[in-house]
Structures are given as structure tokens and as C-alpha cells.
Amino acid sequence: MQAAIGKYRWTICSLLFLATTINYLDRAVISLLKPFIAEAFHWDAVAEIKNYADIEIVFKIAYTIGMLGAGRLIDRLGTKIGYALSTLMWSISAVAHAIATGTIGFGVARGFLGIFEAGNFPAAIKATAEWFPKKERAYATGVFNSGSSIGAIVAPVSVPWIAIHLGWQWAFIITGSIGFIWLILWFIYYEIPAKQARLSKAEFDYIHSDKEEESQQNNKSVEKISWAKLLSYKQTWAFAIGKFITDPIWWFYLFWLPDFLNKQYGLVGTQVSIPVAVVYIMAMFGSIYGGFLPMYLINKGWPVFKARKTSMLIYAFCVFPIVFAQLAGSVNMWGAVILIGLAASAHQAWSANIFTTVSDMFPKKTVGVVTGIGGMAGGLGGIVLSWAVQKNMFVYFEKLGKIDTGYYIMFFICGLSYLIAWIIMHFMVPTLKRIDL
After folding, report:
1. 434 occurs within a structural domain
2. Is residue 209 in some structural domain?
3. Cβ density class 27-36: b for 16+ within 10 Å, e for less
């Protein structure tokens, strides 16, 4: 059947996967360079935590601000130009980290990186809505979103080695330059389905087989719908609250996992590469197969909302065992690594589905801006978590010499967050009802 329909949409998904990989590679680099930077600028243990937390809070504030306009801008410019502009600017910002000379310099570079990286997910989710029918979107989202895990795998394998042999500045320059290569591929292969000459008619018809969506495509008012109007729908708030609660947990893994392995088990430099890579390899499989489960249930005849909600509840329960990570790690470090990997895998599966709820509930022409609203909420959640937990709680327990207690509390927060988010979303939108604009 796939051969008869055509597979060009998966070429597009591959481009989205590659962009997301680069996005997270650029985002993760600094977490692995933290010991090198601390040594270069003579930070002690407390100053290292405080300065690093401040730098990451700047990133999250900038990311949140970027989300204010990223979705709207991409809806206005179109996926092709909007995505390209975002990638170009975040790649320049990533390379610019190499010229930082202290906390302020890194803060400025991280700020620009956050603003422009905000365009990735609104653009990728919009492209998925343009190129895939509804029943395939969670799976396609899971595939491209697995790039966030691949980026986090590539980083620990390559970044410490580059820093040791070439210097920490070159780690930023080399990883940041990869985005320029992606831009060439993007302009060669991407175009919307209606303008893509490589697309067969059979595949075009398959992509546009959701009649419910196509009936709204000519509604001109959709193009100009305001934030105020979108925020009047409980569907928008359900998505935003879900992102506010769960996005910060993934950022915690991304930015603090190397620090946890260092403080808890004494791993330094390239020693963190294998355990961090294992966590994100597990997360990659969670992303891909997290999208497969709802597609399987829908093909079995389940309503879309029931398949999506059931899958998300399963993934929420799969995160919970992380509360026992340090208990397992007291027996063997790999016990903690595996439970963190399971939680990261479940997060990616959850993420593939919560992103897809946007195209389940909203017309294609508003997908970018609604995704941006949710991303902004996730950024706000990240700021709150970084300030309350990582900047204050971690510093407090570091001064007491009990940083392991801080991580225990953080893992407990991780374990409960997804169940809380699922309950709130379920009661706000029990059937993921599609809005009528």
C-alpha cells in the first residue's frame, strides 16, 4: 500500500528529524562543557551551580519570549522560509558561544540561541500537519522528535572529546556549523505538498484525506485569528498547561544529567558519555514507538481522542519509577541510569502525542501559533523549575554537602508531573474536541 501511495512525506519527516537533532545538539553542548568552562573561569562548586543555573535561566526566558512570536511568524512566512530563518539564526548563535569570556557572554549567546531555537517545534509540527494525515501524525512526530534524543546522544560522544583535544571553543564552533549544511538540504527538498513536483497524486490525496480539516482550509478568518481568540478555547489552555508541567522535566534531563552523574558517582569528562548516551538511546525508542501506539489503536478502530489519551496515560505511568532512581543507583549506578532512561523514553512518547493534540484540535493554519503558545508555557515552566529547584534548592543542598537530597526531591517531582498533567488535560478536554472557527 505504501509503495502505491508513495513515501515522499517521509523524506520531509527526515528533514524535520535532522533539524531537531541539530537543535538539541546545539542546546546540549553547554551541559557537557560545564566542567571545562568552570575550570577556565575559576568557578568553585557553588559558583558553578549558580552561574550555570543563571545561564540556563537566560536561555529559558529567551526561549519563552521567542515562542511569543515564533509560531505566528512561521504561520505568516510559511514553513519553508520560517524554518530556514530560525535555523540560520540559531546556528549563528550557537557558534557565537565560542567568543564568550564569562557568565555575561554566555548569557547573551544563550539568549539569542533560545530566541531562535523557539522556531523549531512550531515549524516542525506545522510541516507535519501539512504533510501527514491525522492518523500518522503522532508517529511522524515521534520520528522527528526522536532527533532530540539523537542530538543528546551525539553531544556526549563528541563534545568532551573535542573540548579535550581542540578546546571548548571548538566544540561550539563545530556543532553550531552543522545547521548550515541542513539549510542546503532544506531548500533542495522542501516545499508544501501543493507545490512539490516530486509528490505523486496518490500521495497528495492520501495526505489530504481528512475531510474534516479540508472543509476549513478556505476559511480566510482562520489566517487572522488572534491570540485572544485562541486563548478563549479550553483546548489551547489544556495543551499549554500540559506543556508547562512536563517540558521542564525534559530540560532537567538535558541540562543536569551530566552534573548528576558527576556529583553522585564522580564521573568526569568522557566518562559521562556512555551513561548519557544510554539514557538518550532509550529516549529515542520511546519517541518513535510512542507515536506508533496511538496509530496502531486508531487503525484498530479506536476514536482518535481515546487512542491519544490512553497512550498518554500509559506513558505517564512509565515515568513514575524515576522516584526510585537513587535507591536503585545505591546498588549500582546503572540502576539509576536505566530508570532515568525509562523516564526520558516515556517523556518522548508523551511529547510525540501532546504535540499531536494540537493538530487534532485545531485547523492547520493555526497549528504554528498554538504550538508556540504551548512552547511558551513550557518555557515558563522551565524558568520556574530552574529558579525554584536548580538555582535555589540545589545551591542550598550543595552548601550542606547533601546535593543527593536535592536530586531525590527533583526525581520525585519528575515522577508525578505527567500524571498531574494528564489528569488536568483529561478534565479540561475529555474528547479532544476539534474547535470550529
Report:
1. no
2. no
3. bbbbbbbbbb
- Non-local (6+) Cβ contacts of 91 within 8 A are 22, 26, 176, 177, 178, 179, 180
By residue range, what is the domain housing residue 395?
7-190+233-428
Neighbours of 90 (CB within 10 A): 27
The domain spanning residue 397 has which CATH number?
1.20.1250.20
Is residue 210 one of the residues assigned to a domain?
no
Of the candidates 97, 116, 87, the residue with the CA atom closest to the CA atom of residue 179: 87
162 in a domain, yes or no? Answer: yes
- The count of domains in the chain is 1
Give pLDDT tens digits for 213-253: 554 554 444 456 777 888 889 999 999 999 999 999 988 88
> Which amino acid appears at position 362 of this protein?
F
Tens-place pLDDT, residues 119-148: 998 899 889 989 998 878 878 888 898 888
In the block, cell 568552570 appears at: 38
Is the model's pTM score more than 0.90? Answer: no
